[in-house]
Each structure stands twice: as structure tokens, then as C-alpha cells.
Design brief:
Elements: E1 5-10, H1 16-31, E2 36-41, H2 53-61, H3 75-80, E3 83-86, H4 89-101, E4 110-112, H5 134-155, E5 172-174, E6 180-182, H6 208-216
Parallel strand pairs: 1-2, 1-3, 3-4
Antiparallel strand pairs: 5-6
Helix pairs in contact: 1-5, 2-5
Amino acid sequence: MTFKKLLFVCMGNSCSSPMAETIMQNLMVKTSLYWEVDSAALRTWNIGRRPHKRCLRVLREHGLRSDHFCRLLTVQDFYYFDYIITMNEHIYKELLLWADANHISNTSNVLMLGSYGKNGKTVSVIDLSPARKLKAFRNAYYQIKECCKQLILGEQVYETINPHRDSSESPDSMNADGQQYPSKSSLIEPCSVCSISAPMSNKKKLCQKCGQKFLAKL
């Protein structure tokens, strides 16, 4: 399994990016992936503080919690993380300017979360800030989760399920709180089409139908 390190970035690391970090960490548990996920800010406004109360409230509504403390993006992050994922186009452009000002020449690992929209379409993720209402945070949650799911699917990090796997293999994964999640082997029933090899990878990719089943289970 390919281990990846993801960093979500927004302006203050108080609303959008810590929400994305928590959502992606939860999806990691559900899919038995072991990626490192973090988030950071382009501005110093909230350094050392907890995420905004409306961000935390929406996460709690979905049974999630964040232990994150807001931090500032560093030059070292560009060399440590495989992907630096910006929360919208404005942050994406700002981050490229920031990288240029800090003499970072390789920005090929900078992505925009909205580019992982459903059916390959780019979406405009709601730009959250402390001034936004709770409804905006709730709507952004679903946008962010859908994009994170598409990112996982697009990376083709899963393997197709072996229908003859050892029955003694544990069918479920368990998080630190003792809550069980289906393992990636039990998320879907594969079809014969899913034996197609992913380009430039020894992993397998799911056909469109099985891919949709995979996403629906997350």
C-alpha cells in the first residue's frame, strides 16, 4: 500500500482546512489506509488556537472530533508532504505566490481540493470564515467530504478485493475508541472488470460501477 502525506491549507487554518483534515482522517479509518494528514495556515491569525467553534460543531454533528491546533505553513512542508491541498482557487493562487516568495521552485505537489469534484467536475468549495453562518459550514462539510472521497478513488490506493481471501482475516478495522469500520476488503463486492491495472501503478482500479459503490460506502 502506498503511504502518502497530505496537508490541507486554508487562510487561517481555523475553518476549512481542519475540517478537511478531520474528514480525511475519518475516511482513512474506514478504508484502512494509513496516510498522514495535517492542515496549516497561510496567515498567523489563529496560530496555537483550536479550530473555529462552528467547524467543531459541524464535525460533532457527524460524530467526529478534531484535536488540531492551528499552525502556520512552513517551507519544510513542501518537501515533507506528498500533496499540499488548497481549499479553493484563491488559496491555490496565494500559495503559489507564497512558494515563489520563499524560493520554492517545485510546486507540482500543490493541488486544489475542488478539482476532485464528483464525476471529474471541478467544484467551488465554500470559502469558510468565522463570519460565515452555520449553514455554510454544514454545506461545506458535504462538499469537502465528497472531494476527499473522490481524491481517494482517484489515487487508486485500494486493491481489488480477493473473493477467496482467507476467512480467518479480520473483516473489520477498529479505531482508538473501539468503533468498528468495514475493512477495504469488505466495502464492496468486486466485478470482473476490476482486474484492470491502473496506469503506471501496480495497484488496481475499480470500474465506474464499483467505484460508485466504493464511494457510497464511505
